[in-house]
Design brief:
Blueprint (H helix, E strand, L loop, with lengths): L1 H17 L2 E6 L5 H11 L4 E5 L2 H11 L13 E6 L3 H15 L3 E7 L2 E4 H9 L3 H46 L1
Antiparallel strand pairs: 1-3, 1-4, 2-3, 4-5
Helix pairs in contact: 1-3, 2-4, 4-5
Keywords: Ribonucleoprotein, Ribosomal protein, RNA-binding, rRNA-binding
Function: Forms part of the ribosomal stalk, playing a central role in the interaction of the ribosome with GTP-bound translation factors.
Protein name: Large ribosomal subunit protein uL10
Length: 176
């Protein structure tokens, strides 16, 4: 039995170490069908939900260097969400699923070694998608360059407008 526990801890530790985040959720009252549906919804984001004994998670969390303040949340029927990709997308799915079915309840989480409470995870869920944030950042970075190009082009454009107006005025006086 001890060898099995060691293998489970090693498996959990590898999941925790390969994921920048860990969410702890209370899945009490969640049917097998709904749990499978949650797994299905998390899959496209690269996230997974698993059930491990809380004592095994505590040992893996200690070995991974997670904050000790996570331990009080490792009680009752807990499931654990990890993933290698977009933490915001996983948080959004968890929040929407909990709103839709009133289960599972988000207890806490760890993001890059920092403890998050349920409100912190919900705040992550409210952030725009990674692609939207990248587009916004690109827009912010391009704005000064665009303004500089317009500023550099303005003297030439002003000169062209003055010459065109003078040519138009000369053309009208010749026609009269």
């Amino acid at each position: 039995m001890k060898a099995e526990k060691t293998l489970l801890i090693e498996d959990l530790l590898s999941r925790v170490n390969s994921s920048p985040f860990l969410f702890v959720v209370d899945y009490t009252g969640l049917t097998v069908d709904k749990f499978a549906e949650l797994r299905k919804r998390l899959a496209p984001t690269g996230a997974e939900i698993h059930v491990f004994k809380n004592t095994l998670v505590k040992k893996a969390a200690e070995r991974a260097g997670y904050p000790e303040s996570l331990a009080p949340f490792l009680t009752g029927q807990s499931a654990f969400v990890t993933g290698a990709q977009d933490v915001c997308a996983a948080a959004k799915i968890m929040k929407n699923f909990a709103a839709e079915f009133e289960k599972p309840k988000i207890k806490a989480g760890v993001l890059d070694g920092a403890l998050l409470d349920a409100n912190g995870i919900k705040a992550l869920a409210d952030l725009p998608s990674k692609e939207t944030l990248q587009a916004q950042l690109l827009g912010v970075l391009q704005a000064p360059a665009s303004a500089l190009v317009r500023l550099l082009n303005e003297p030439a454009a002003s000169l062209a407008r003055v010459l065109k107006a003078k040519a138009d005025a000369a053309g009208e006086s010749a026609a009269a």
